[in-house]
Amino acid sequence: MTNPTGTGLRIGYSFWGFLGAGITDTPDGGRSHRRTLVDALIAAGHEIVFLQENRDLVEAGSDLRGTYQWDERGLPELDLLFLEWRWPIAGRNTTPCGQPGHTCDLHRQQQLLDHYTDQGLPTILWDKDQQLPAEEPLRQRSTVTVTEAALHPSPGAHSLLFPVADEDLDAFDPASAAAEPRSWPLVYVGNQYDRDTAFDTYFVPAAAQHRHRVCGKWTSTGRWPQVHFTGRISFTEVNALYRDAVSTVLLLPERYTRRGQMTQRLFEAVLAGCLPLSPTTIRSVARFVPSSLQIASGADTADRVTRLTRLRTSDKADLLRSCAARLELFRASAQVEHLNALLPTATRSVRLLTP
Questions:
Q1: Are 326 and 275 spatial neighbours (Cβ–Cβ below 8 Å)?
Q2: What pLDDT is stored for residue 52 in this prediction?
Q3: 295 vs 4, which has greater pLDDT?
Q4: Which DSSP category does 354 fall into?
Q5: Looking at the whole model, is its pTM more than 0.70?
Q6: N or C: which end of the chain has fewer CB atoms below 10 A?
Q7: Strand, helix or coil for residue 310
Q8: Inter-residue contact 107 to 65 (CB < 8 Å)
């Protein structure tokens, strides 16, 4: 897509995942918000060139080249490099190219860093999974801006939350969502990664008392024979499940908890009318959910689920309205405005170095 105004930056965007629904067998949570950010940046006057493999086309058979542009092997002229940070994953992106199971995201990222960042091009690094080491030299570069999807990012980093489309927030109707019939008292959508402790603490005791379903990649479940695991579901099925559920529990890895980093599961659930229960250990939890949806234990979860299943429609609508108000944190226009505020500093620092 060409720059609609000609006044913005030409941004090279590196991500390993999908813009569309993609495929079922992938942990790419970015599908919930990546396209929202890209579209908002384009609407703000910037031109976007994708620099990693077009997985929408190659793996999902979805051809989006009439709407967006890719240059997955070249090194085009850019004003700014934007990286969704990739990290080494043994047996996947650390193996030699061409080996079975190899993905080239890490090699391509290094090529981009060598060509652009090492030559002084402004670079914004979005550490969405908090995998960038504290001692990483990139943090010290004057032309590199590190961002995290957290309310309380690590020292030297800036906050860039997962965006929710303005039109989705504006169109949400709590009263209509509250009136929809729902089959499941409790569900969880997400993968196991680093969530065992939170799952044990907040979900398992409630699962013993309520009809429930857990969807996602959970490879080690023997310790929870009482929990109903149903495997991965497609991206398009996530919304349907939330629309059929009364409540969910927001389970986070500990590194997210201490930084106040909320995943896309919050807004996916709320905008489908599913009430999110959130552990009180999450930093700034009150900015994500109202007090009546905060939980301190598994027994607390079980009790809240019971109460929510008996809630009057009007009271449920009030809770959803309160949750939706908190989603303003994630409004796409606000996130892009914040990101735009970071761009001039980065670009000026390089222009000053240009003869």
A1: no
A2: 97
A3: 295
A4: -
A5: yes
A6: C
A7: coil
A8: no
